[in-house]
Amino acid sequence: MTSPAMTEPSSTQSSTAQSLSTENTELVLASSSRWRRELLDRLQLPYRCHSPDIDETPHNGETPHALVHRLALSKANAVSAHFPHHCIIGSDQVAVFEGDILGKPHTTEKACANLARFSGQRVTFLTGLALLDTRHQRHQVHVEPFEVVFRTLSTQEIENYVTKEQPLDSAGSFRMEGLGIALFERLEGRDPSALIGLPLIALCDMLRQAGLDPLGAP
Known about the structure:
This protein is α/β, with parallel strands linked by helices. The chain has one domain (15-209): Maf protein (Alpha-Beta Complex), CATH 3.90.950.10. The protein has helices at 15-18, 34-41, 64-79, 108-118, 155-165, 193-196, 200-209, and strands spanning 27-29, 47-49, 87-97, 100-102, 122-133, 138-150, 184-188. Strands 1, 2, 3, 4, 5, 6 and 7 form a 7-stranded mixed sheet that branches. A hairpin with a 2-residue loop joins strand 3 and strand 4 (100-102). It is globular.
């Protein structure tokens, strides 16, 4: 796969990484998302962050599963030239409703329109996860499904939520880790962290296969 245009390495590191030496850090998160950093912090592994620069536009006829699979790996590939001896994590997420692929709303109007469509309905979220091992030129990719059943929401509730949380950069137009939890009737899936944007259960399995076990020796 041809990698998109590269950006200069970012000096951003997680709060966990800041307290540990990164000189020999093997793990890189290809994301600028605060929420993904907070999730990865839970694993207590030192890592670096680098924001990928890729076009997230779906290809003609591309299925939601294929889209998040491609974008997760593309994000890891996009920063690989800067990290030739590392394991690079890429992740991407979309919401799927009535056959439509819904990414980030970007505007208040679109966020409100999305949530109005979701009211009282079941929405599927697909999160693509890639671990690119540039040390051995190998990669692993996984797509984690998760379903959300929304409460029946009034127009006022929707407007109040969007005004308070401004979820304009979140697939599905909400943040489950924040006030978005008040929108739901129930959640269905094996890994709630997938809904925030980084499926930690699958990631732990990938890391173990790459020799970076979160429960390994200090």
